[in-house]
Amino acid sequence: MSIKNVQISLDKNILEICWSDDHISRFHAKWIRFHCKCVRCKPTVTFDYKIDIPSFSPDLAYDEVKITDEGQKLRVTFEKELFQNHVTEHDSDWLRQKCYCDACLEDKVKARDVISKHLRKGKKKILPKVDYKEIVDNSDRGTFKWLKHVIEEGMCLIENVPREEKMIEEIGSKVATLEMTSYGPVWSVIDTGVDNAAYSTMGLPLHQDQPTYETAPGLQLLHTLRFDSAVTGGDSTLVDMFKAVEILRKESPEDFQTLVEVPATYCQIDHSPSSIEPTHLEHQKPHITLDYFGKVVGCVWHPGLQSALQVRERDVERYYKAHNKMMEIIRREKLQYKFKLSAGDLIIFNNRRMLHARDAYKSNGGVRHLRGAYLRLDDVKSKYLVLARKLGYDVIPPKVGNNSSM
Q1: Within 13 A of 90's CA, how many CA atoms are on the CB side?
Q2: What pLDDT score was predicted for residue 105?
Q3: pLDDT level of residue 269 (50, 70, 90 thresholds)
Q4: Does residue 195 carry a pLDDT above 80?
Q5: 147-174 residue pLDDT tens
Q6: 115-391, which class in CATH?
Q7: 205, 214, 337, 346 from 362: Cα distances, Å
C-alpha cells in the first residue's frame, strides 16, 4: 500500500496519512519514533534494549515528514530528538499493517477470533477426528491437522493410537514439552481408591482442570489404554465454555457482567500422608475475562474446586444468581458433545476453553484406564504457527483462550 499524502497536526503530535485507497491513519509522534527500525534503534539480538523511552522528552514532536520511494517509505525527523542527526524511516506496508484506528483494530480482533468464527458456523456436535496413521505417515501435516482442529474447534480425537504408555509423551512432545502440575508430567485416570473423585468410579461434573494455578494447564491429552467391555457407563462430555459464555451475555447481560467482576476462589489443599504429593494451592479469579476490546478471552469453571466465596457482602447474592444461570446454560443438552472413548482413542482438547465431564461407571470386573498429560497453550499456539509457515499454509495468529486477544 502506498502513501498518497501526509499532514502534521497543529500541535505536531499527530501525523495523518492518507493512503492510496483513501484510508486515513493517524500516528502519534512517540509511536512513530519508538518503533524506529534504523540500525541505531532496532535490536539486533533478543532482549537488546536500544530505545529507553523515559530518556526521551515528553514533548517529543514531529519536525519534518517526507514521502519517498514513490510512496513506499516515510522519513521523519523530530523536535527534541534524543539522538543527534537521527532520521526515522518506515516502510508503508508495515505502517498500514500496524494502523491502530478503530476500524483496523476491530478487523484485527475479528480476524484472530477463530473461536467465534467456528461457533457461528453452527455445526452439529460431531467430534473432529484424525487417524494416528496420518501422524506417522506425515508427521508435520498430520500434527498440523489435529492442531488445527484443536485451535479452531477446541478438540480433536486421534483414533487407533497404540495402547502403549509412552504414546502420550510421543504425540505430545511433537508439539510442546509436557507441562508439570501437582500430578506430575503424566498421570493415570483409573479407579485406585485414592481420595480424589477423578481416581474413582464417580461421575465428574463439567469442569476445567487445575484452576487453582495462576495459569491453568492448556491442552489436555487423555489416552485410553483400556476401556473393557465389562465396564458400564463412563461416557465423556465436552462443552465449549466460550459458547456458553456468549449465550449468557445475550440472555442475561447482568449475570454476565457479574461473572466478569466478582471472583470465585479455587482451592486444592492436601497435606494428608496418603496424598500423592502434598499440595497447597489457592487462587481467586473471575469466571470470565475480557480483553481491552470487551471480547471474551478467558473463562474458568470448576465447581468441584471452589472454596468459600470471599467477596464483599453486596456481591454475594448477585454472584450466586449468575452462577446458577451459567450452570443452567452449560447443562443444556444442545451444547454437549457426548461420546464414549474406546481403547486406543486419544482425546485432545483446549482445557482453557472446553469443559469436560465423565459419567459414573461400574467396573464389573473390567478396567477403565486413561493416561493424561498437559501442554502449555502458548507453546501449542507457537507450534501451530511455526508448522503453518513451514507447510506453506496462510493462517492468522488465533485467539486461543489464554486471556489474550492477540
Answers
A1: 24
A2: 95
A3: confident
A4: no
A5: 999 999 999 999 999 999 999 999 999 9
A6: alpha beta
A7: 17, 35, 22, 22
Q: Is the pTM of this model over 0.85?
A: yes
Let me know if the fold of 3-100 is the same as that of 115-391.
Answer: no
User: Domains of the chain: which residue ranges?
Assistant: 3-100, 115-391
User: What is the number of other CB atoms lying within 10 angstroms of the CB of residue 324?
Assistant: 11
Q: C-alpha cell of 62?
A: 514531529
Domain 3-100 fold is: NE0471 N-terminal domain-like (3.30.2020)
Chain mean pLDDT for the chain? 93
Please check the confidence at residue 252 and state whether its pLDDT lies above 80: yes
